[in-house]
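Anyone up for a design puzzle?
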């Protein structure tokens, strides 16, 4: 596995996979089938399933005995064909069909039945026994017509009933004599015996090298990893062999650049889960809606009298919230590009808002240190959550909307029950001033960004810090935001040096550092549907990656 990672790191390129799995090996090859069985048998023995291994061996040996009997039968039939003893051949043919059914070789058996009856028919034509030939054609050859070499061959068989000799039909111009054609048929039968490995030797399950099956599976997974968008530093975690290894592509190149704001852009948000539109909020007091496919500004939302700190959208993409530095929260109808309502429930700046997926409620927080829960349908505050000792920089719902997470300058993170408004847990483990909190899609992890240049991953079930990420710059009065990246497997954050940093969640390693902007990168958001990462900056520019 390490060799695979080193190779990708050195070359920077991935080998192309085989276009057809059968190019690797033919699973119908009898010898390979035997070797697969050998490896399964050895694996069972290695794992202590000796009784099951013995049953497989006994069953395999029984099939081998059946093949041995079939081989003898074929050899006997071959001799009877050479002698022209067609009555005995027909009896042997019935036995052969039973044997072939057991071994899954019925198609090969029927092909030879056709060839045998064709030989008999040609001999009858050669001897001018047309009455017997007609009966044989109707009863034996007609049902097996699909096994003829081509359409014209069967037509020529019918045509021979009006001919004086076999060579008159174009399909049988090379006919020489009865004995010669019998020899050719016997040769084809011998080839059939060889190709299906029906040898007379007793075959038993031999010993495969110990651990061979596991080693092959490891090689297969390693190849899948090598040909995936794997990056050095990512922790490999294969949890199942029942599906192919997949790895999310790491954002690395600029997709589009959105220019239009007249001042710095502190917030960005995908409008709805489909990722077709992106919103950006700026200190110029406007919100712009961008088309993520074309980069076109679809609308400019005007109404704020001060800088915009935060944005939030519902899942449908119909409603967008924006919070400003004077305590106002605007509720926008995205389709109409109009402000539906303006709420002033905070005395000072709003630093963070988040909408429930359904769009029925939102939570907001800011300089006054309170977290509020608002019913959008009635435009009433239904919860005023107190406990933080300083401004609250970030709030976030979990996916079900029953939990609110808040992070504050007081160096704590609080977990609230959105129904009762009770604070169920407080995290205060050397966090530093918290600039951002977010929750994973699974609602298992909390991600926090702090003004000590670090991010931390918390397990909500304990809660306990399970990982710390370093590399970003986050020390000033600005709020540097972070989020979960593709598949919750990556962590993404802005930085005061204008970079975007991407970490592998499990290992904590930086797997991508992008020089994203000319100034501070404030906010970043990931959208799974469009597979785009958005960022915004003090340089007034919004980008997707």
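Challenge accepted. My sequence:
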């Amino acid at each position: 596995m390490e060799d695979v990672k080193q190779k990708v790191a050195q070359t920077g390129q991935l080998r192309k996979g085989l276009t057809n799995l059968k190019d690797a090996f033919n699973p119908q090859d009898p010898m390979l089938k035997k070797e697969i069985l050998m490896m399964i048998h050895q694996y069972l023995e290695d794992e202590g399933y000796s009784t099951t291994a013995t049953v497989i061996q006994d069953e395999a040996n029984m099939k081998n005995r059946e093949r041995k009997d079939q081989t003898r039968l074929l050899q006997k039939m071959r001799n009877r064909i050479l002698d022209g003893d067609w009555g005995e051949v027909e009896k042997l043919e019935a036995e052969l069909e039973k044997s072939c059914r057991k071994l899954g070789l019925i198609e090969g058996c029927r092909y030879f039945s056709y060839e045998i009856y064709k030989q008999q028919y040609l001999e009858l034509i050669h001897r001018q026994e047309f009455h017997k030939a007609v009966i044989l054609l109707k009863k034996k050859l007609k049902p097996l017509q699909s096994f003829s070499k081509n359409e014209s061959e069967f037509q020529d068989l019918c045509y021979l009933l009006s001919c004086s000799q076999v060579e008159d039909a174009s399909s049988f111009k090379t006919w020489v004599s009865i004995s010669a054609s019998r020899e050719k048929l016997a040769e084809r039968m011998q080839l059939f015996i060889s190709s299906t490995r029906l040898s007379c030797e007793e075959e038993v399950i031999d010993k495969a090298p110990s651990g061979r099956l596991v080693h092959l599976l490891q090689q297969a997974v390693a190849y899948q990893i090598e040909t995936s968008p794997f990056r050095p530093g990512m922790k490999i975690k294969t949890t199942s062999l029942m599906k192919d290894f997949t790895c999310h592509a790491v954002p690395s190149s600029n997709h589009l650049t959105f220019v239009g704001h007249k001042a710095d852009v502190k917030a960005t948000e995908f409008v709805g889960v489909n990722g077709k539109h992106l919103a950006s909020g700026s200190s110029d007091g406007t919100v712009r809606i961008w088309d993520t496919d074309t980069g076109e500004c679809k609308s400019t939302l005007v109404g704020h009298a001060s800088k915009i700190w935060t944005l939030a959208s519902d899942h449908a993409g119909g409603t967008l919230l924006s919070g400003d530095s004077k305590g106002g929260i605007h509720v926008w109808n995205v389709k109409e590009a109009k402000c539906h309502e303006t709420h002033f429930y905070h005395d000072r700046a709003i630093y963070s808002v988040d909408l429930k997926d359904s769009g029925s409620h939102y939570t907001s927080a800011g300089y006054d240190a309170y977290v509020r829960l608002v019913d959008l349908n009635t435009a009433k505050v239904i919860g005023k959550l107190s406990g933080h000792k300083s401004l609250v920089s970030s709030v976030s719902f979990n996916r079900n909307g029953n939990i609110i997470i808040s992070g504050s300058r007081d160096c704590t993170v609080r977990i609230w029950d959105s129904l009762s408004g009770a604070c169920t847990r407080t995290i205060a483990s050397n966090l530093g001033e918290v600039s951002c909190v977010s929750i994973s899609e699974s609602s298992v992890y909390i991600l926090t960004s702090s003004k000590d240049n670090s991010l931390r991953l918390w397990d909500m079930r304990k809660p306990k810090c399970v990982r710390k990420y370093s590399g970003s710059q986050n020390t000033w009065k600005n709020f540097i935001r972070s989020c979960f990246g593709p598949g919750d497997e990556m962590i993404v954050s802005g930085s005061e040096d204008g970079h975007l940093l991407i970490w592998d969640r499990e290992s904590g390693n930086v797997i991508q550092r992008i020089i994203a902007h000319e100034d501070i990168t404030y906010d970043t958001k990931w959208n799974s549907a469009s597979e785009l990462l958005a960022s915004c900056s003090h340089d007034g520019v919004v980008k997707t990656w």
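A detail worth pointing out: The longest helix spans residues 50-83.
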